[in-house]
């Protein structure tokens, strides 16, 4: 509001000054034509960097031991694709688990009930304080101490049958993620001004409605970017479930690599797919952030697609005017 | 006229600091009641007690004959459940110094929110009513704007429309013009003046002595958590009886 005002007066003042100085005969001022400063350092650094990049590319391109053929052959191999699919599956499921549990833990930590807030604190303390690799192994080997999973009248089964590689991977990644998501959600909820809660309460809205309609939508703006980061991290961390014999992308490619004597080539294949998946999700995150930025900035930046449309329209207008 | 708000020995302390030290006053239905005083005198705190945003420590506070925040059975007091407190607040509109509009909603969505969520009004009916209210505060053409696209004065007028959308019987104004640029104050005061003329009961914490004198029916000067002086605005502002009132007014007038 104030900067809007400032802009208004700021815009008016120079205009008034110009008309006063120039008097009745307003002549366009002479445009300054000066020789720009030469930034020789920039040319030098650009050349050095380009040379280094060239050497690196050359090293890979001319390396006789790299069988580039194998990379091409195996990128769309069905085993590799299935592995990439499992990587995606376990990452998404673990992330969903992390977000849901994380929100619950965040609300528990912020609650006035000392027992729930303390339990949430201990959970976060343990799962953030131990390596996810160790946690995966703990779940995978649970049958060593609890041979039978006995949930009373509800469920009873051999632990080895329950704790499949998939289950161990899901629990290991999901429960670990929940601890991080809890802290992210807590920071998001706390970032919303108290005045918002007060205004909602003053209107007669209940605690639940205030949280759902007023606080969480605003907290999302703070929560989404780090959550996107967490998901990208999750996609990569999921390669650790190799340890619990879940057949995801890294395990699938490595298995091929060790049997076909193309270890490095298959790691390249794994890299390609990790990059493809993370790139796709980065784009998705951009649009998600844009949606939750509503109202926080006056003008949202155009999406890449909107930019293209605007450019194309300008182009076609130009053409039609010249015709 | 009956009392819309009645305070009997209201005390409030934060930590060990006593902010309200026994407030007794009565706000009649349909009047414009102005609270003035130096900062830290407890006037905003008292206002926030009226809709139970702050819990009082001692005394009684009634709105429209109903005890605020508690239920009395015999000589025992029971705290009201959150849902019951929310029920009480529905009839009390509040306008904040810093507007507190919901930034993720457009002006019209801000005004519609409570009628839809609290009263269960249909979205189309709520929207129509919200547009009428925005028209009433002179912002019919800004319905689709987000708060960040509005000036402070416009935001405060949307906030007034938002409070009015719940059809309150009492409106609380907590220094509604203090955060505004001087040239925007007038628009907000005009809206409040119109509201006063329509017969709304209003309690206004303000530093706008001109508004208090013109529109106010009663005026209370608070200092150090107590009511120092009260009466008709013209009398108190032009002929204060207490030294404290005199020195305060000599600084602000």
From TrEMBL, chain A:
Residues 1-23 are annotated as: Disordered. PROSITE patterns: ABC_TM1. Its main location: membrane. It is a multi-pass membrane protein. InterPro entries: AA_ABC_Transporter_Permease, AA_ABC_transptr_permease_3TM, MetI-like, MetI-like_sf. Pfam families: BPD_transp_1. Gene3D superfamilies: MetI-like. Keywords: Cell membrane, Membrane, Transmembrane, Transmembrane helix, Transport. The chain crosses the membrane at residues 43-63, 83-108, 120-149, 267-288. The keyword Mitochondrion does not apply. The keyword Oxidoreductase does not apply. Residues 84-285 form the ABC transmembrane type-1 domain. The HisPMQJ complex is composed of two ATP-binding proteins (HisP), two transmembrane proteins (HisM and HisQ) and a solute-binding protein (HisJ). The HisPMQ-ArgT complex is composed of two ATP-binding proteins (HisP), two transmembrane proteins (HisM and HisQ) and a solute-binding protein (ArgT). PANTHER family: ABC TRANSPORTER PERMEASE, ABC TRANSPORTER PERMEASE PROTEIN. Belongs to the binding-protein-dependent transport system permease family. This is Histidine/lysine/arginine/ornithine transport system permease protein HisM. It comes from Streptomyces griseorubens.
From TrEMBL, chain B:
One of its GO terms (molecular function) is ATP binding. Residues 5-249 form the ABC transporter domain. InterPro entries: AAA+_ATPase, ABC_ATPase_HisP-typ, ABC_transporter-like_ATP-bd, ABC_transporter-like_CS, MetN_ABC_transporter-like, P-loop_NTPase. The keyword Transport applies. It is found in: Cell membrane. Keywords: Amino-acid transport, ATP-binding, Cell membrane, Membrane, Nucleotide-binding, Transport. PROSITE patterns: ABC_TRANSPORTER_1, ABC_TRANSPORTER_2. It comes from the Bacteria. SMART domains: AAA (SM00382). It is a peripheral membrane protein. The keyword ATP-binding applies. Belongs to the ABC transporter superfamily. This is Arginine ABC transporter ATP-binding protein.
